[in-house]
Amino acid sequence: MDMKTFLENRHKVPPEQLAPYIGKYVAWSPDGSQIVASAEDELRLDAAIRAAGYDPAEIVVSSIPDEDVLLGGGLSE
């Protein structure tokens, strides 16, 4: 996984695409361009990642905070 590419692509995902995932755990595609699975807890997320055909060891997992929190804060180009 190329973390530079991942972070660049992750930063490009518009907040409105993240809104349905607020308060959930999400699994990002290896290139960071999209969410490939989501769940209310980490155990269910692991199963969803596998069901989507990905190896959990190769996926970045994060949570989507409340919209009052600045996503990607502190990142510079």
Structural summary, described in words:
The structure is a single chain. The chain is an alpha+beta fold. The protein has one domain (about 5-65). Helix content is about 30%, strand content about 15%. It contains three helices and three strands; from the N terminus they run ααββαβ. A three-stranded antiparallel β-sheet has the order 2-1-3, with helices on one face. Strand 1 and strand 2 form a beta hairpin. The mean pLDDT is about 85.
List keywords for this structure.
single chain, 3-stranded antiparallel beta sheet, 77 residues, alpha+beta
SS class: alpha+beta
The mean pLDDT is: 87
Instruction: Write down the secondary-structure element order.
Output: HHEEHE
- How many angstroms separate the termini? 20 Å
What is this entry, summarized?
The chain is α+β, with helices and mostly antiparallel strands. 31% of the residues lie in helices and 17% in strands.
Task: Give the helix/strand layout.
Layout (H helix, E strand, L loop, with lengths): L2 H10 L2 H4 L6 E4 L6 E5 L2 H10 L8 E4 L14
Antiparallel strand pairs: 1-2, 1-3
